[in-house]
Design a protein that fits this description.
- The complex is a heterotrimer of chains A (320), B (288) and C (258).
- Chain A is mostly helical and 320 residues long.
- Chain A contains 13 helices and no strands.
- Chain B is mostly helical.
- Helices cover 72% and strands 4% of the residues of chain B.
- Chain B has a two-stranded antiparallel sheet with strand order 1-4.
- In chain C, helix 3 runs parallel beside helix 6.
- Chain C is of the alpha/beta class and 258 residues long.
- In chain C, 43% of the residues are buried.
- In chain C, strands 6-7-8-3-9-10 form a six-stranded mixed beta sheet, sandwiched between helices. A four-stranded antiparallel beta sheet of chain C has the order 2-1-4-5, covered by helices on one side.
- The longest helix of chain C is centred in the middle third of the chain and has 20 residues.
- The two termini of chain C are 38 Å apart.
- Classes of the chains: A mainly alpha (320), B mainly alpha (288), C alpha/beta (258).
- Chains in contact: A-B, A-C.
């Protein structure tokens, strides 16, 4: 029991120290406004990609519709914060966005998650496109022009906090009864079902949680960029999130963090290259996949427990 | 009726593209995301040879097919072959990377502006009662159907076609009986890409405008078409293409053009829910 | 007492009848074997009984704490929760997960960990996890696998993988355990160990065991009763001694000459 407390406190310390260090760097001028901008975008991408990693990497269901759920979160939160432009409004907006997104995911997930592999991918892509087209034609969402003048409420501390919260929720979910059940579906659905695991229930649950976190990412996106339009949430956006997941390593949350950071920095560096930027970006992507098909980190996961264990082991060796 | 005619021209383009998706998927289980961009390359090739070298339509068509076949083979060799034994999703991301590269590479070299496709032949409108049909529409329909028949003959009647079918059923067994897998896969890419090249030249002629991003949407639609009837089936892809073309033009005619894409996806999802492996596809149950 | 009652069970695949009019029963705490030549429909019968495929005709009913329950048309996970667990002929472990996780997953249905409890890591979560882990390790101990708790299932030797499948099935707390060729690919020594283990768990957990097996020494050693299946039909039932003398069975195994 004490050990668990130690691990949890270490994680808390890592999160707090991370925040303090970044703020210090900002204070002394190592990170400028442009750098903060990059960090916010990386943070939002981490939130989006960890949710998708839960769906693809842990439950093994291939979803290509993440941008649809992101769009729901973005629009719901933008509409709410446009009338209540306070941090409280932001909180309400994120919760409401996540709730609506989860509900849609539930309705969509129950029938479609029976499909396998590429068929599921294409069905979820279809769902996301339908969501986008509906947003494109509704009055309340202002059609193709989208929403603008959304208050800037997703400041860097808010994004940092949400990265921590969503990651904690997903990681804790994975390391529990529910997470194990979800992974068993990925490993062998027939065996899982024969061991008394209601596979449909857990597939849908993972999908719903993924969709809810996508909505949080969307909400932050809307209240940081301050304008949103349906075209922001097309297939390309779903694919961009997918790239982060695969590049980091399917089934590695640590990998998702690393990949989001690497791609974010790559993007920042390539800003200076103008039109050549996307060419270099796509070349980098192809080369990375050809030479590291399992992603940057494979399924490796950073773990405080293992770190401690290694530490105590080497100490024991030293003592002996 | 008029929509039926328009739908058929559009549908045959989707069908040609869907064939490429289906063949590649059938043989290496890869959703070749870059396929729509091969079609874009075909259109640009047509643009170039008609404008600069003054090729006529037929020469442009055939040379575009050859050019695209070559590009398809090179892409497979450089980008997909190293990943043949990797997780399928890694190959998929690579395909997306190739797609980005083609789109942005072309935009970088030729700018992303829309350009008008040279009119390689004079447009005639024929009127049959209330229906009007242009010679280009007829041409598209005839050429597409001819190509599909040709493809079907290659797959059914030639030795290479047999090898293709063998590899798609069981690559290991195919190798054991002496089929050269690499060559068969290259051949499949060549065939599929040639179809896309032909579609590119014809759509240039039909819509009269091309740009580096033109392959994206039709690419996805064609993929939907391939899935609609059960991905991996050649006949299915052809039918799927026509169904989607017709569906789109019908929605347009009914005044729902804003929702035409939504309708395509809705139909797709409903079909998949009723028949999880497409209309013609057979769901293979895992043996316990 | 009859625990599982199977009446006139039939399964048609298109024109092919894989299992035809099978009537059999399993008594409480009994060890029964199901034998028959290859392709006789043994695994199909297992799949019918565990809900993986739905029977065309007939009924499967089980005596539970809540009275008699009909299992036809129940989803596999429901069947498992009712108290039927199984192993697979072609091993189906959760390969990329640890040995411990494999066992813990089988405890999912009996695990009362709440969603919010685990998300927020409440103290009760840690208590439940610790208790569960102990239960799983105790189970692994019976099979002498307690040292392999953290190994990935795919890295286990073949014999250990087969044993892990049995542990995993036991972790669902079944009343009846179905073993599909548990000794396949094992050497005589391993088979002898396995025979002992099966008898031990049947006694210790007071469960009923139905096993499919081609290894006759194991079957004749272990089974209290034997059912013989040929071309989807039951051709004999009896004690090992009776089956060994049965004309029809000898004919089925040796071919038409005798």
């Amino acid at each position: 029991m004490k050990k668990n407390l130690k691990y949890n406190l270490t994680w808390l310390a890592i999160m707090v120290v991370g925040y303090v260090v970044i703020n210090l760097l900002e204070f002394v001028g190592v990170i400028d406004q442009f750098g903060e901008n990059t960090m916010v975008l990386i943070g939002i991408n981490i939130i989006l990609a960890t949710g998708l990693n839960l769906i693809i990497g842990f439950s093994g269901q291939f979803s290509l519709g993440h941008a649809g759920f992101m769009a729901i979160g973005a629009y719901v939160c933008a509409l709410i914060t446009s009338s209540i432009s306070t941090p409280m409004g932001m909180a309400i907006g994120m919760i409401a966005g996540a709730a609506v997104s989860a509900l849609v995911a539930l309705i969509v997930g129950i029938p479609t998650l029976r499909l396998d592999g590429d068929y599921l991918a294409i069905a979820t892509m279809g769902v996301a496109e339908i969501i986008r087209i509906i947003l494109n034609n509704l009055k309340i969402t202002n059609g193709p022009a989208g929403l603008y003048n959304i208050p800037l409420l997703a400041t860097w501390p808010v994004v940092y906090l949400m990265v921590c919260v969503t990651t904690l929720i997903i990681v804790n979910f994975i390391h529990s009864r529910d997470g194990r059940a979800v992974m068993s579906v990925r490993e062998n659905e027939i065996a899982s079902e024969s061991m008394g695991v209601n596979t449909t229930k857990w597939k849908v649950l993972a999908f719903v949680i993924g969709a809810a976190t996508a909505a949080i990412g969307g909400a932050l996106h809307a209240n940081y960029i301050q304008t949103i339009a349906p075209t922001d949430f097309g297939i390309m956006e779903s694919i961009n999130i997918l790239i982060i997941v695969v590049l980091g390593g399917i089934g590695s949350i640590t990998g998702t963090f690393v990949a989001a950071a690497v791609l974010g920095l790559l993007d920042m560096i390539l800003q200076n290259f103008g039109t050549l930027r996307m060419v270099l970006y796509s070349l980098a992507l192809i080369l990375l996949m050809v030479f590291k098909p399992s992603g940057l980190l494979g399924t490796w996961e950073f773990s405080v427990r293992n770190l401690f264990n290694r530490f105590t082991k080497s100490k024991q060796k030293g003592d002996a | 009726m008029q929509q039926l005619v328009n739908g058929h021209s559009l549908g045959s383009i989707y069908a040609l593209l869907a064939l490429g998706y289906t063949m590649v998927y059938g043989i290496i289980k890869l959703i070749n995301f870059a396929h729509g961009d091969i079609y874009m390359l075909g259109a640009f090739w047509g643009y170039y040879v008609i404008n600069q070298l003054h090729f006529n339509f037929w020469l442009a068509l055939v040379s575009a097919m050859l050019f695209c076949a070559l590009v398809g083979v090179v892409i497979e060799y450089l980008a997909y072959r190293p990943l043949r034994n990797s997780p399928r999703i890694a190959a998929l991301i690579t395909a997306i990377g190739v797609s980005f590269l083609l789109e942005n590479g072309m935009a970088y070299m030729f700018s992303s502006n829309v350009r008008s496709f040279p009119q390689a032949m004079k447009v005639h409108q024929y009127h049959l009662g209330s229906i009007s049909i242009s010679n280009i529409q007829i041409l598209i329909l005839v050429v597409s159907i001819a190509l599909m028949i040709l493809l079907q003959l290659i797959v059914r009647r030639t030795k290479m076609g047999k090898a293709m079918r063998g590899v798609s059923v069981d690559p290991d067994a195919a190798q054991l009986i002496g089929i050269n897998i690499d060559r068969t896969i290259s051949f499949t890419f060549a065939l599929g890409s040639a179809m896309a090249g032909a579609a590119g030249v014809m759509i240039g002629l039909y819509y009269n405008s091309i740009d580096p991003l033109m392959g994206m949407t039709p690419g996805i639609k064609a993929f939907v078409a391939a899935v609609l009837d059960g991905i991996g089936l050649i006949l299915g892809a052809a039918i799927g293409g026509f169904v989607i073309g017709l569906l789109e033009t019908t929605m347009q005619a009914l005044g729902f053009s804003a929702f035409k894409d939504a309708a395509v996806y809705a139909v797709l999802i409903i079909i998949l829910l009723i028949r999880p492996a497409g209309i013609l596809g057979k769901k293979i149950k895992e043996k316990v | 007492m009859t625990l599982l009652d199977i009446k006139e069970l039939t399964k048609n695949f298109g024109g092919l009848t894989a299992v035809s009019d099978v009537t059999m029963h399993l008594n409480d705490n009994e060890l029964v074997a199901l034998i028959g030549p290859n392709g006789a429909g043994k695994t199909t019968l297992f799949n019918l009984l565990t809900g993986v495929i739905v029977p065309s005709e007939g009924t499967i009913s089980m005596q539970t704490d809540n009275g008699l329950q009909v299992l036809n048309k129940m989803k596999p996970y429901k069947v498992a929760q009712t108290g039927l667990a199984r192993t697979f002929q072609n091993i189906r472990l959760f390969k990329d997960l640890s040995v411990l996780d494999n066992v813990l997953i089988a405890m999912t249905a009996n695990n009362k960990e709440g969603f919010f409890e685990s998300i927020f890591r409440l103290p009760s979560f840690y208590h439940k996890e610790a208790a569960l882990r102990k239960e799983a390790v105790d189970l692994l101990k019976i099979f002498d696998m307690q040292d392999q708790v953290d190994n990935l299932a795919k890295n286990l030797p073949y014999g250990a993988q087969r044993r892990l499948e049995i542990v995993r099935a036991l972790a669902t707390k079944p009343r009846i355990l179905f073993l599909d060729e548990p000794a396949a690919g094992m050497n005589p020594e391993e088979t002898a160990d396995l025979t002992r283990l099966i008898r031990q768990i049947q006694k210790e957990f007071r469960i009923t065991v139905l096993l499919i097996e081609h290894d006759m020494s194991l079957v004749m050693n272990l089974a209290q009763r034997i059912y013989v299946l040929e071309y989807g039909q039951l051709i004999a039932e009896g004690t090992p001694a009776e089956i060994q003398k049965d004309e029809k069975v000898i004919k089925a195994y040796l071919g038409g000459e005798s």
